[in-house]
Amino acid sequence: MKATERETPDAHFTVDKQNISLWPREPPPKTGSSLVLKKPLTVRVAVICLLLVLVTSIVLQAIFYPWLMGTISDVKTNTQVLEGRVDNISTFGSEIQKNNQGIETAGIQIQILKTSVEKANVQIQNLTRSWEGVDHLNAQIPELKRDFDKASALNAKVRGLQSSLENISNLLKGQSKSLRK
């Protein structure tokens, strides 16, 4: 019986919105399905992914557009500031050259001053030596004064002796005259 049952055509029917359809063993055709749903599963997944990427891109652009514009504005402002600084740096270059010339001149003047200071130091050393000599002489002044006082006393004694000798000489002359007579 089973063999006979298979050979006999079966009739299937469904009621769909009050329509009656008969069809062979294949499944009934789906009515009202979209073209996307009729495609294979990989195509549907690819379309869904593309739609998700598109929606995400639009949402991200809506979110990040103001931030991106602010960043671009900041970059433009920074560019202008850097251009100003580059201009300043180029003017600083000429000022640096002028300053370098001034530094070279100052270096020459410093060398001249060093030479003058060295000469002054030599003169100061000479004056210090001379001053030491003066101090030594000043230390000798009291001794010289004592010697001078002694010399003056001796000189007074010598004069006294001279006057005594003259007196003696005069006496002797007087006695020698009287003896000659």
Automatic annotation (TrEMBL):
It comes from the Eukaryota. Pfam families: Lectin_C. This is C-type lectin domain family 4 member K. GO terms for molecular function: carbohydrate binding. The keyword Membrane does not apply. Keywords: Disulfide bond, Lectin. SUPFAM superfamilies: C-type lectin-like (SSF56436). Gene3D superfamilies: 1.20.5.170, Mannose-Binding Protein A, subunit A (3.10.100.10). InterPro entries: C-type_lectin-like (IPR001304), C-type_lectin-like/link_sf (IPR016186), C-type_lectin/snaclec_domain (IPR050111), C-type_lectin_CS (IPR018378), CD209-like_CTLD (IPR033989), CTDL_fold (IPR016187).
